[in-house]
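User: If only I could read backbone structure tokens as easily as an amino acid sequence. Those tokens are not coordinates but codes from a learned vocabulary of shapes. Could you go through the record with me and say what the backbone is doing? Here is the record:
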Amino acid sequence: MQPIESDQWDDAEILRRFDDSEGVLPNVPHVRKIGDDTLVKATWDMGAPHLEASSLEFVRMHTTIPIPRVWRRMTDEGGDTLIVMDYIPGERLDHVWPSLSLWSKLSVAFTLRRYIRQLRQIEDSHSSVPGPVADYPQICDSYMSGDKPYGPFPDYASLSAFYNRKLDIAKKVTYPDRHGNAIPCAPPDTEPFDDSRPLVFTHTDLSMRNIIFGRDGRIWLVDWARSGFFPPWFEYVSMVYAAENDKAPGSWNYLIPFIADPLFKHMKWIDQLGVALMAYL
């Protein structure tokens, strides 16, 4: 394992450099480059500490997907978790996408499709519990709950029950059609939450900004803070929501069904829940 510059620094030096550095992106002060090859990310874990670091190490152990290596886990004086990891030289995919050829865009799509299939093939003792990899159930954080925390869920059935309660609300919440008639957000005959396939490991935030076109020619995936075991269709739906949130180009949107499978029915299902996802129930 090739050492990095921060190996020569003690925790106090890393904290000093973190405090003296600026965020690597505007409005993202919690991710800072503290050396030529070193990045530090401050996280606010809602459950067990260092969940993102655990996810990174878990993915590295089970796949060949290029991801940052975790070098150190720390806690600052305020109690925030700090992850010292590789800085990946390259450009965010959303920045380089307009300049890529059609073939290069398709190559990126094929690569991401392979990555997702690697993640879905992981078999592990944690795979029966929804959410982040940990020794006990954790709070989940994703686009799948109106972009706010939900859970924890001790088992798959609990996750299904959560969404079916949201569905019951959506069947009662109405909106006016063009004739002024009250129409339920979700029709009465809407099928329940689809838990027909086993939980699989998902990134759950595969936006273009979290995909790095590395200087080494590889496609890197970063920001695993929302990752965990979820139904397979969560990856597709979260990619669509992320693309909408980031106003991604149409060419990217067209490729999402190929990358994560064309799960249009599931997209429609979660959309019908609408404001019900924001209800605390």
